[in-house]
Amino acid sequence: VVMKIFHKIQRIPETLRIALALSDKDFIRKLWKETTDGVLKKQLAFMMAQHGFYHLIEEEEDEQLQELMGNVKRNEYFQHLAKDLDIVEPKLPEDIYKSHLTEVKARQPKTDSARQNLASTFVNAFVNAAFSKDKLMNTGEVDWLFKNREHGRISAAASVGVICLWETDIGPNELDKYNSMEEDNVKAGVVLGQGIVNCNVRTSFDIAYSVVSDHLTDKSSLVKQCSALGLGIAYAGSSHGPSVSALLPICESDTTMELLGHVALALGFINVGTCDPDITEIFVTTLLERGDAGLKSPYTRFLCLGLGLLYLGRQEAAEVTIESVKAVPGVWGKYAALTVETCAYCGTGNVLKIQSLLAVCGEHLEENDNGHQAVAVLGIALIALREDIGRDMVVRSFDHLLQYGEVNIRRAVPLALGLLSVCNPDLSIMDTLSKFSHDNDPETAMGAIFGLGLIGAGTNNSRIAQLLRGLASYHWKDPNLLFIVRLAQGILHLGKGTISINPYHSAGLLLRPAAMAGLLTTLHTCLDFKGLILGKSHYLIYTLVLAMFPRMLMTFNENLEPISVAVRVGQAVDVIGKAGNPKTITGFQTHNTPVLLGVGDRAELATDEYVSVSPILEGCVILIPNPEKTKHNK
Fold it and tell me: Exposure winner among 108, 342, 483, 501, fewest CB in 10 A?
C-alpha cells in the first residue's frame, strides 16, 4: 500500500526503497522503465547497487548506468575517501597489535610461528581491505606466502583478493603473480581470491566466471572447494545462471561432504532468498539419502545453511521445506529444520518464533543430540535484529541462558550477542563479552573474543582495542586463543576503520541479503572453532567479505563528479508521528563530505544551495542545485 501511494505522488526513490524491502522484482523493473529523468536514474542505480540488486543490468543499454548498477566504480570512490581522510598509507599487523604497550615481550614463546603468521595474514588483509596496497603480500616478493604452512597458503593467496577488494582491474593482475606455482594450496587460494575481488561488483564481461569456473573440474578437491566458494562470493545475490549450472552437477555426483558443503554454500549465496525449488529438492534429497553415517562431517552444517539461505527472509514460503527436512534422522534433521526456519524469519521480530526457539534452548540433552541448540540461539538473535526493544529483551533472555544453559548453549550465546549489535559497540554487551573472554571453557572464550571483534567491526573503537590487547597478553601461552584474538583485532580495524559489515542500510529499513548470508556463514563456521577455523578451513572467514561495505557518504553533482558539501552528522532520532517540525538528529557535528557514518548515525545537508535526489543521505548521493535558491539569486 505504502509503495503504491509513494508511486502515485511520484516520490520515486522512496518507492524503490519499499519495493526493495518487499523484494518485488517485477515492480522494480516497471519502475526503472518508467523513469526517464537521467539524474534520477543514476540515483536509483546507486540505490540498487548498494542493496545488491543486480537483476536489471543485462537489460540496460547505457554503459554508465550499467557501471553504476554493478558497483564498478566503488573502489575508485573508496580511494577518494581514503585520500580525503589521509589513510592511504598501508599498515602492518604490528601497528594493530601494539605489542610494545604490553609487557610480556620477554615471555613470548618462539614456537608455532606459522599460526602467528597466519593470524598476521588475516589481520593484514582486513586492515588494508580495498586499499589495494599493503606491506606483506603486494610488495613484489613472494616471501610472505612461504612463511605460512601448507593450508595457511590458501588464506595467504586469497588475502590478496581482500586487499584488492572491488578493484576489478588491478586485483586479477596481482593474483596472477602466484599462478605459476603448481602447489594446490596456492592454486586454491588464487581462485578464491579471484572470486573475492569481484565480490559485490558486476561487470558486463563476467570476468570472475570465466576465470574461476574452469577450476571446478580440477583434480584436487581442495581447488574445487575454493573455486565453488569463489563463484558463490563473486555472484552472491545475483541468481547468475551460468554459475548455477556449473555448480549443480557437483551436487548430483557422489562427492565428499566437505566439497558438497562448499558447493551448497555457493548455491545458497547466488540464489539467496529466491526459494529456488530445484536446488531445494537436491539439497533435501542429499540430506535424506546420506543417512546418519554420511552426515557425521562438520561440513554438513553448510549443506543445511545453504538450504536456509535460499529462504532468507521469506517467512511462510519455507514451511513445506521445514516439514520435509524433519524426516532426516538424528541431530542433523533438527539442525536443518531450525536453520531454515531461523533464516526465513530473519529480521522480522516475530515474537512467537523467539518463544519456540527459547523452548528448544531450554531442553537438557545428551552431548551427541544437542548440536541444533546452538542454531536456535543464533536464530533468536537473527529474528530480533531489527528493532531496539526486541533486542534489549533478547539480551536479557541470553543472560538467563548463560546462567542455566548447557555448555553448548553457552558457547553460542557470545556469537549471538556479536550478531545482535554488529558494528555497534554497545557498552553493556561489551562488558558481558569481556567477562566471558576469560572463561574456563576455551570455546566459550573464543566465541566471546570473536564477538568483541564483531560488535566493533570497522569502528576502531579504542575500548575494544584495549580489551583485545589485554587478552593477547593474557592468552599468550595458548596459540589457539591468541589466533582468535588476532582475528578480532583485524576485524575491529576493518579497512582502517572505514568499512562496516552491518547488513542493514538505508536508515535501517533494508537488509542486504548477500551481506546477511556472509555474516551467517561466518557465525555458523564459528560454532565449531576447533574443527573448522583452527583446522584447515580458516579461509571460510573470508565469507565476511560479502558484508563489507564502505560506511561513507559521498556526494556528486549531476555529472557524477564528487563535490564537497557541508553536512551535519549526528545520532538519529525517531520522529515518526511527532507534531511540528522536530529535529531528526541530535548532537551533530558539521563536516565536509565525504564523511563516515556509524551505526545509528544520520546525516543532513547543512547548506541550502543543493537538494539531494535521494531522501536518505548514505552511500553515494547525487545533489542538484536548489531551484528555489537559484530563483532567489536572480
Answer: 108
Task: Give the angle 33-38-41 at the CA atoms, nearest 5°.
Answer: 55
Confidence of residue 358 (pLDDT cuts 50, 70, 90): confident
In the predicted structure, residue 184 carries a pLDDT above the cut 60: yes
DSSP secondary structure code for residue 562 in this structure? B
Instruction: Identify whether the C-beta of residue 49 lies closer than 8 Å to the C-beta of residue 71.
Output: yes
Joined together, the cell numbers standing for residue 79 give 580511494
User: With 70 as the cut, is the pLDDT of residue 108 above it?
Assistant: no
What phi, psi does 290 have (nearest 5°)? Answer: -65, -25
Cell triple for 169: 582491474
Mean pLDDT, rounded, for 58-75:
76
Q: How many angstroms separate the CA atoms of 98 and 492, rounded?
A: 14
The Cβ of residue 333 has, within 10 Å, a number of other Cβ atoms equal to: 18
DSSP H helices, 199-239, are: 207-212, 221-234
Amino acid at 105: K
Q: In what order do the strands lie in the sheet with 552-556?
A: 595-596, 552-556, 619-625, 610-612
Q: For 573-616, what is each residue's pLDDT tens digit?
A: 765 666 656 676 776 777 777 777 777 777 888 777 888 877 77
pLDDT of residue 120: 78
pLDDT tens for each residue of 455-507: 888 787 888 888 888 888 887 778 788 888 888 888 888 878 778 888 777 66
Instruction: Provide the grid cell at 527.
Output: 560454532
Residue 271 and residue 216: Cα distance in Å, rounded? 19
Q: How far apart are CA 460 and CA 470, in angstroms?
A: 16
- Which run of H or E residues covers position 566? strand 566-572
* Integer Rg of the chain from CA: 24
Q: What pLDDT score does 631 carry?
A: 62
Cα–Cα distance for residue pair 490/496, rounded to 1 Å = 9
606 CB burial (10 A radius; 0-12, 13-18, 19+): middle
Which residues, 6 or more positions from 88, have their beta carbon under 8 angstroms from its beta carbon?
Answer: 79, 82, 131, 133
